[in-house]
Amino acid sequence: GYKYGVPLDADLVFDVRFLPNPFYVEELKHLTGESSKVSKYVLSKKLAKDFLKKFFGFIDFLLPKYISENKTYLTIAIGCTGGKHRSVVIVKELEKHLDSKDYRINVIHRDINKE
Question: Which residues contact 18 (CB under 8 A, 6 or more apart)?
Answer without folding.
Answer: 47, 51
